[in-house]
Amino acid sequence: MSSSGGLRRKQLLKAVVLGDSGVGKTALLHRYVNRTFSTHYKATIGADFMSKEVIVDDAQVTVQLWDTAGQERFQSLASAYYRGADCCLLVYDVNIKSTLERLTLWRDEFLRNRFSDANSAEARDFPFVIVGNKTDFDPAERQVAVADALDWMASVGIDAEDHFETSAKDDVGVTEAFMRMSVKAHRLS
Ligand code: GTP
Ligand code: MG
């Protein structure tokens, strides 16, 4: 029997996580990278980053995950971190409709900072993954159906398969969403 592997290709991917304050960006990253969850809210100031090693198509990929501030007053710092990003995770809260509506602004803001021409083909094809978080709340409180998210995604040209619903609290869908992001970014890079 031959031993598996040998040298794998190595790659560094940069991912940026965006969305309104409180939707759970930091909680999703802690769940994905550290396997932990805290109910305590501490606003992200500017941006933080964490790393995660994953295997994609037999390449060893280090994903640098940039967690940005949703609060307006901390954001001017954050946009500097959009440069060089290979993919972007846009997060909304399924219990607050405005957080989905605001993804249009987050996406525009991201593309404006990431590309010199936000209308270029490169910008148009940029890989986004869309995440509706906090599905563990009372279903009667839910304000955003999957169909609402898919409608918005179709309107900006993002495929339905790039949509995920998650609960950082209950660890539902989190690994799947981040894995999708790594796979997309890796294949495009
Ligand atoms: P900013 O840093 O201000 O942009 O906010 P954020 O998007 O990073 O939000 P954060 O991850 O800090 O989460 C905000 C609050 O929501 C915290 O109290 C979390 O514990 C809570 N939270 C995050 N994800 C979930 C979830 O899936 N379910 C529940 N029930 N609470 C969550
Ligand atoms: Mg945060």
Characterise this structure:
The chain has helices at 25-34, 75-78, 97-101, 103-114, 121-124, 146-155, 174-188, and strands at residues 9-18, 47-56, 59-68, 87-93, 128-133, 163-165. The chain contains seven helices and six strands. The longest helix is centred in the last third of the chain and has 15 residues, at 174-188. It is an alpha/beta fold. The model has no long low-confidence stretch (mean pLDDT 93). The protein has a six-stranded mixed beta sheet with strand order 2-3-1-4-5-6, with helices on both faces. Bound molecules: guanosine-5'-triphosphate and magnesium ion (MG). The site of guanosine-5'-triphosphate (GTP) has 21 residues, from helix 1.
Low-confidence stretches: none
What do the pLDDT scores average to?
93
Query: How many angstroms separate the termini?
Result: 34 Å
What ligand molecules are bound, each kind once? guanosine-5'-triphosphate, magnesium ion
State the oligomer.
Answer: single chain
Major sheet strand order: 2-3-1-4-5-6
Q: What class, by secondary structure content? A: alpha/beta
Protein name: Ras-related protein Rab-7b
Organism: Thecamonas trahens ATCC 50062
Pfam families: Ras
Family: Belongs to the small GTPase superfamily. Rab family.
Summarize the structure.
The chain is α/β, with parallel strands linked by helices.
Write the layout of secondary structure elements.
Layout: E1 9-18, H1 25-34, E2 47-56, E3 59-68, H2 75-78, E4 87-93, H3 97-101, H4 103-114, H5 121-124, E5 128-133, H6 146-155, E6 163-165, H7 174-188
Parallel strand pairs: 1-3, 1-4, 4-5, 5-6
Antiparallel strand pairs: 2-3
The protein binds guanosine-5'-triphosphate and magnesium ion.
